[in-house]
Amino acid sequence: MDGVEITRVDEEGVEEEVEEVLKETGLTVASYNFGVGLLSSDEGERVHAWEEFKKGIERAKALGARSVMLFPGPLGQGDPDEERRRLIEACRKCSEYASKEGIQLTMENVGSPKGIQVHGRAEHMSEIVEGVNSPNFGLAFDTGNFVMAGEDPVEAIGKLVPFVVHVHLKDVVRNCGRCKEVAVGEGIVDFRAIFRELKSHGYESFLSLECSAPGDRTAKERMVELSVRNVKGMLATE
Fold it and tell me: Which contiguous run of DSSP H or E holds residue 31?
């Protein structure tokens, strides 16, 4: 493992603790992730969100992050197409600022019920990346979220691979019409096909494991260990 993703560090003293752990382990911050309310209908909230975004970029730089994955919100407040239009405008502004600070900006396809209609499907992500139209803005491709959005991630990567700058490896199984996360390689996502597509387009950035196991820490660690073993096995034979 070469890197780690970190989600929002803003509690007093936590940033210093994270920096110390990074020094001890030698890990790189592959992505610093946070959300801000840039899509709020309230102008005052949008102004506050913009200041929070700039603070987030500063934290990313302090941690030596290569990129920032942005979660714009709130979603599900109105017409999805209109929200997507405002999202594009917000990401264009954020990308321009991040570029000046030397930070790559990314956004992932989401699997939440409210988010799916705005930026959950392949056509949405293509529209967003093309609309932002910045070399500093790209897609964080989440394999499992496409399944949650009712799409085949293999078909999605075929359409979106030119835009992909970061990858989340998430696997799921379907249970009574709902998706349940499992260790990578133990579910229904065809990772070998995805890896082949990424390789054919020269992808050389991070493959980030996203493992969310119910239960205690031991269960989570087992899920991560199995995921790492499965991914290494698949990559070794591709």
Answer: strand 28-36
pLDDT of the residue at 77? 86
Planar angle of CA 159, 163, 166, nearest 5 degrees: 115
Decide if 32 contacts 6 (C-beta within 8 A).
yes
> What distance in Å separates the CA atoms of residue 72 and residue 114, rounded to the nearest whole number?
12
- For residues 86 and 187, give the distance between their C-alpha atoms in angstroms, rounded to a whole number: 35
Answer yes or no: are the C-beta atoms of 113 and 123 closer than 8 Å: no
pLDDT averaged over 10-residue windows placed end to end, the chain, 238 residues? 84 77 91 94 94 95 93 91 96 98 97 94 98 98 97 98 97 91 97 97 95 82 94 92
**Cα atoms found within 13 Å of the Cα of residue 205, Cβ hemisphere only:** 23
Query: What tokens appear for 147 in the block?
Result: 């399944």
Scanning the chain, the segments in alpha helix (DSSP H) are: 14-25, 43-62, 80-100, 113-119, 122-132, 143-148, 153-160, 191-200, 217-236
Domain range enclosing 24: 3-236
CATH code where residue 10 lies: 3.20.20.150
Q: What does the alpha-carbon distance between residue 56 and residue 216 come to, in Å, rounded to a whole number?
A: 30
How far is it, in rounded angstroms, from Cα 235 to Cα 204? 13
Helix/strand/coil for 67: strand
**Total domains in the fold of the chain:** 1
Q: Is the pTM of this model over 0.85?
A: yes
Phi, psi at 32, each rounded to 5°: -110, 125
